[in-house]
Prior knowledge:
- The chain is about 15% helix and about 25% strand.
- Mean pLDDT is about 80; it is low at about 1-25 and about 45-55.
- The protein folds into 4 domains: about 1-190, Porin (Beta Barrel), CATH 2.40.160.20; about 200-255, no CATH class; about 255-340, no CATH class; about 375-490, CATH 3.30.1330.60.
- By secondary structure, the chain is an alpha+beta fold.
- The protein has helices at about 1-15, 375-385, 400-415, 430-450, 475-485; strands spanning about 30-40, 45, 50, 60-70, 75-85, 90, 95-100, 100-110, 120-135, 140-155, 160-175, 180-190, 420-425, 460-465, 485-490.
- It is built from 5 helices and 15 strands.
- It is elongated, with a radius of gyration of 43 Å.
- It has an 8-stranded antiparallel barrel with strand order 1-4-5-8-9-10-11-12.
- Helix 2 packs antiparallel against helix 3.
Amino acid sequence: xxEITFTLAFSMMLTFTFVANAQTTTMxxxxxxxxxxxxxxxxxxxxxxxxxxxSTDLWEPGWGIAYGRNINKFINLNIPLHVRKSKVPQIxxxxxxxxxxLLIGLDATAHIGNWEQKGWFKPYLLxxxxxxxxxxxxxxxxxxxxxxxxxxxxxxxxxxxAYLNIQSQFRLTLDDYRRNYMHGIxxxxxxxxxxxxxxxxxxxxxxxxxxxxxxxxxxxxxxSLGGCPDKDNDGVADKDDACPDVAGTANLKGCPxxxxxxxxxxxxxxxxxxxxxxFNGCPxxxxxxxVDSKDDCPTEPGPESSDGCPIAVVLDADxxxxxxxxDKCPNEFGPIENNGCPYPDRDNDGVFDKDDKCPDSxxxxxxxxxxxxKVEDVETLNFAAQNIYFDTGKSIMKSSSFEIxxxxxxxxxxxxxxxCSIGGHTDSVGNAASNQNLSEKRAKACYDYLxxxxxxxxxxNFTGYGETQPIADNKFKxxxxxxxRVEFNVYLK
Length: 493
């Protein structure tokens, strides 16, 4: 027993074997070339105790090739062919002892292991059946190989590689004296070359837009809206559409405006006739401040005291339908609701100061009279989201981030009417609770920095989202880099 144990250990270190189980799931076939040594289980010839041999002196070398195929992720089928010269004397059918025999064997074995496991080391168990033709004796020995081994990848993980294989097996035969150990090491070559193809981009909702680029990855949508749906086909994504089942216009958040007066039909008291905001979408044709439905003279301006009809003797120098005696600005045209005086518009942007969120800075009415962010400022904020860096696992901002944070502070100082929401995000590496806490601390660090640069804290708020809102796949390094970000959402107060 001690000699057998020594033989097994020594053989495992020095010998070659045949096995073809290093295929990837995309490369099912492989071949191998190998070298092996055989050590017999017994050191006595049958029925003759006088004729013995020392098993430790009979390491029989051999060579083989094998073909292998993955049946599934757990089972690999191998067909090894092996050839060796045997020094062990054997007795033929006529009782004569013969030695120096040529043995040619063919096996069918199943290798059991997890072939899709990650890493460079893959262990397995083996079992099967084999037959060996013994030259000179002209007979075939049946054997049952049992054993195990392991593969070691040679090369980079993402390429088809050769594998180093070390294996040991015990071959159980019908004749006790022919039982033997076979130990070896070999090189496995998957059939095929090239780089393992990357997994196809994920498209959860099947709309042809990958999740990485899809703004609505769980709901099928259209490319023009970044993968978001638009049930009424009005060009406004359902998530932004206040009227998702009825086609409308973008400036009214997707709601219809049948009379094209800029007032959504749902809020328009006169949806089929163009009107004005002051009368909830109903017209005042003569502009006398009396809605047409209550104006006895809808095409001629007149005071309310005469039901909208003109009074010949009434003086109205500025023609604003407010008689001079009631007009606080008799020489300036102004609406009735402002006692005949025009509403001020300090920045001359066409939006009265009473409706202007930025009365001292010109801006379009669509933006409530405030200047819109310049394209370059929006680009700076988007760039900042991916370029604020912190020490790994900490909320301490690196000095390399100060320059871009200063640019964010400059933008906020140039747009005093805007507030800023700061959102911290992480990748999915590590504990979810820890990631949530880290994202909050990093958002707070950006908040503190902006306050230190003179931005009022009342204009800022911060939130941590942890790993809950990824914008890329966390399986890949590039995706994790994109997911680790701090976003700055600038909006009007």
